[in-house]
Amino acid sequence: MIAYERAFFPLFLHVLGAMTLVGAMLAVLVLAIAAWRRPEVAALRRAAFGTLLVLAIPAWVVMRAGAQWIYSQEGFNGHGDPTWVGIGFLVADAGLIVLLATSGIAFWWSRGGRPIAGRLVGGLTGLYLVMLAVAWLAMSGKWS
Amino acid sequence: MTTVQWLLTFHVTGAFLLVGGSVAAGVLNVLSIRAERPSETALFLRLIRPVLPVVGIGSIATLVFGLWLVHERDLDFWSFWIIAAIVLWLAANALGGAGGRHQERARLRAEQLAAEGDTPDDELRAILRDPRGNAMSWLAGLATLLLLVDMIWKPGA
Hints:
The complex is a heterodimer.
Chain A: H1 8-37, H2 42-73, H3 83-112, H4 115-141
Helix pairs in contact in A: 1-2, 1-4, 2-3, 3-4
Chain B: H1 3-34, H2 38-46, H3 52-72, H4 80-115, H5 122-128, H6 131-153
Helix pairs in contact in B: 1-2, 1-3, 1-6, 2-4, 4-5, 4-6
């Protein structure tokens, strides 16, 4: 029961992208925590980087494209936009920096296996999940 | 915030946990099938366990807060999209459970092989590539996707 009287496809793309992004980051967090306990298993590091590259980044693109599509279709113009729209864009755009930084560090981690890299990946992934939770709470509750 | 806004927040949070958790479980399942050694297969399948409470809480929250919203907004409970949502919710849970039992079988065999030299055998390969077992998980994912389509499109609303 996500929305009434809104165009289906852009909202579907936005929500599907956002939910897939949350799932991808959750998988990376689980892999990073497991690798913390089992640093000798290189498959965990490779899987974390692969998940970011193959799933999380494409999901971000779908989520952000859907958001821009809805934004232009629903007549927002940057003047007097509701708070929840601002929070959504802030998390989406700042989140890209966090996502790319996490992916870069995950690549370094998958190659070298340095424990600090794994901890950074876990920490940034947890931070990004919190940011995404704030965004979905603000957008579903329509914080004004 | 109004009661409806609060309920919608909890309902959407449930949906994020349900779909996000299902995606995470799906990723770990795919990783287990693609793993080279039985010990890695078993490890990836074990990692699905901490994700299951996320899926469970999300699943219950979507249903409870969704039905509460139907009551609060005075919607027709017998509308096509609400009945479809309940049917898809039941299907996703039943298929997900069946897929989980298949993964558990694969994990047990993988752990056995990991303790006996960590070399895959035909039995493990057959379990991991069993079309019926894997179909359960993919169909559960499809039912969840259709549930999302139904919630946004609301056919018959």
